[in-house]
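Technical appendix A lists one of the benchmark inputs used to test multi-chain prediction within the project. The record comprises three sequence entries:
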Amino acid sequence: MSSQDNVAVQPPTDSRASRRLNPSLVVGAVIVLFVVLTALVSFVWTPYDPTNIDATQRLLGPSATHWFGTDKFGRDVLSQILMGSRTTLFVGFVAVGVAAVIGVPFGILAAMAPRRPGELLMRGNDLLLAFPALLLAIMFSAVYGASTLTAMIAIGIATVPSFARVIRSGALQVMGTEYVLAARSAGRRPFAIGLRHVLPNVSSLIIVQASVSFAIAVLAEAALSFLGFGTPPPTPSWGRMLQESQEMLFVAPRLAVFPGLAIALVVLGFNLLGDGLRDRFDPKLEDRR
Amino acid sequence: MTALTDPVSIDPVMSYIAAPAVLTVRGLGVSVRDTALVQDVNLTIGPGERVGLIGESGSGKSLTALSIMGLLPEDVTATGSVRLNGVAHDLIGADERALSRVRGRDVAMVFQEPMTALNPTMRVGDQVAEAMLIHRTQPNRRAARAAAVARLDRVGLPDPAQAARAYPNQLSGGQRQRVVVAIALANDPALLVCDEPTTALDVTVQALVLDLIVRGVTARNSAMLFITHDLAVVATVCQRVLVMYGGRVIESGSVQEVFSRPLHRYTQGLIGASDLDIVDSRGRLATIAGSVPPAGSFPTGCVFRNRCTYATELCQTPPDWTGPDAADGFACHHPAGVQHG
Amino acid sequence: MTLRLIERIAVLAASLAVSSILVFGFMSVLPGDPARVALGVNASDQSVASLRAEFGLDRPLVSQYFSWVGGLLRLHLGDSYISRAPIGPQIADRLQVTLWLVITSMVIAVLIAVPIGSLMAVWHRRISGLVLSAASQVGVAIPAFLAGILLITVFAVHLGWLPANGWTPPAQNPAMFLKQLALPALSLGLVQAAVLTRYVRSSVLDVLREDYMRTARAKGLRPMPALLRHGLRNASVPVVTVLGLQLATLLIGAVVVERVFVIPGLGSLLLDGVSSRDLNLVQDVVMFLVVAVLLVNFVVDLLYVVIDPRMRAGGR
């Protein structure tokens, strides 16, 4: 905010139309839809069985029969990528779901609570920030063994703090509005206010944060799978594909490219979607981030 | 537009000075994309003259000032001519390099909001010294720092040496504005542009800072363009005044003339509205009907016609400027004090 | 001023305490019997019992917790259940390696992000700004280990300029050390730079809109010097926060990068510990990482006061 905003000339926002459907939103949405479609298709059909080991077909380059080639076990890379998208999306979805289900009520609670307790809650929240997703997942795996479930829970818990922070600050703003003040004066119970007034008004924040956190979750899951703490074989997973490709780097570097591109594409898609949604919901923040 | 003649030879107030104008603005226009925000502004300021520019928000007065400094926001462009005495090139359309040599040295500006005008992470004395070091009016850092302390003393800050070491957040609004004035006058500019410099200050401080500014320019024989919506301030501080509405100058003249015998209907309304003694038969204060249209939505022809009780069909054509020059005249089809049927 | 400092130290102490409880609870309580976990399902009851006695695992939990914390404070980290080797020296050794990696990466990230982010802000309406923005979006989408693999493919496989993995201590062979540090540090650093760039851009954009930038230009400063002299210090405040937060990400990112490049750092110590179910070791390493992150955030908080005079007492 500067006094320059008061120079009584606001250039007419002719680009309002372009803000509604800004390129970030469109491209992000397209990518996400494409990936979701891929995952859905993989339930019905993949070119080959991705777990089918065939020593005679090892390390083939891309061709008409194997569009992306085969890996060191003879498995079709494209099929693995298609099926791997399921794992990626599934983990992302559950992790974000867990984070939202815990983080949103927590954030709203922290906002509606009186000042001191609210700040205390936030301090606790920030403490969780010292445990990044990967670290939590490694801890979980050490105790419970590696699996998709531990990955999802760990990533979910690690994502709670960012949700809680964002939602709390949004909720604080809502609490300061006049209609909430009116509701409180009318004697509405806090739970009802939280549900009926605060929640709907932070819903756009939730959606944006969900999209951004999804991207982070995908990155975390990929790292976990790479390290061997994610989905165990034989279920295909992009991170594990990358790990397997590493020993073949000198022979067939393309084996790293396909899963790598897939991961980057999904993350990019969700990031763009999140940014685009953020712009759409609040154009004033356009130039930030 | 009648041809401009040197206002000095005609304006009785300045007749004793025969010097080239410090600032000459001709045909200044400011627009953002396709919308014209300021049109056809002409004004001249002679050495040591104090000229006021009055208007409400949306009249384009701030934009006019920013155009002179070349500090318009992105997307906003200026056309026309702005010439400063002693500067070889036109300020409109000049490149950043040329403009940065002029700013702070030949022309300086005091902005409205003192709380945010200073860099919060830099000591106040250093910010004043910087103004001098940029234009090399002081030979080195040490001299600049000492000069900065002297400047802070001249703007009336108690214990200037300590003030120089302070950070802006340790000073009050009035003190910060004094610092801003010190920075602006540091290099003795020939022209000082002030955009509502006291509006954001506490009432008790306003008069002090105003006095400070006036003494600052008179001591240096600097010219001043003083922009404000406050008629009382213009009456006290300025010798001449221009009235802006809808992006155009609609009347100009000496403060005495314009305030006691306003000719344009808008000026008349303005003066009337500030006079708390004028009431109608029901005891209500005088106002101007309607409200200021948003930028770009002013009526064609006379910009004031949709609020003017004297408007006729004739007012759909833009009124010509009536007067000997830009410094003295008005643009109205039905001015006050003239017989019209 | 001192009150705030005391408050911050109290918060740090509380955070450390709570984290230690969390970590202890997780690693010592949840698995059930750490001794059995360490020795495996097929171990005899006898060996499990003797392990438990040796490491005092039959004492009440609270007492175990306090002796662990006491050990931490005195920097006595005990011995690993599996290898019986003292944990402390292992962490110290590995820490040096990881530090090299993390610090170099951070330097690379800052050196890239600050100029590019500033340019992105200054050019934010131009095509060049949009191009840079798009590039940083892509950069953010690439995980560090993927960047590592891609860099290996280019520089080790195709060009053969740099080794694909390995580690040499700097004292032993400085040239080799540098060569082996290059790709891992770049992997982490480039990815970090992409993230940081966006924060720098945002922060600089905010600063450019401030009134004091206009005052600076009204004084006669050209845009670039104005940005450098007035803008950067103000823009650096939010960026420094982010850097601190990013350290947590960097430390963990280092874990994965160490695996890619086979570097004997803390990360691989942790991962080895997990694979061999050495809960004691894992617990200590995790606690170490958490303490490091908390300490860094604490220091960043203090740095604020140095950078931003508004945080000091006496403001209005």
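Chain B touches chain A through 18 residues (CB under 8 Å). The longest helix of chain B spans residues 203-220. Comparable benchmark entries are summarised in Table A2.
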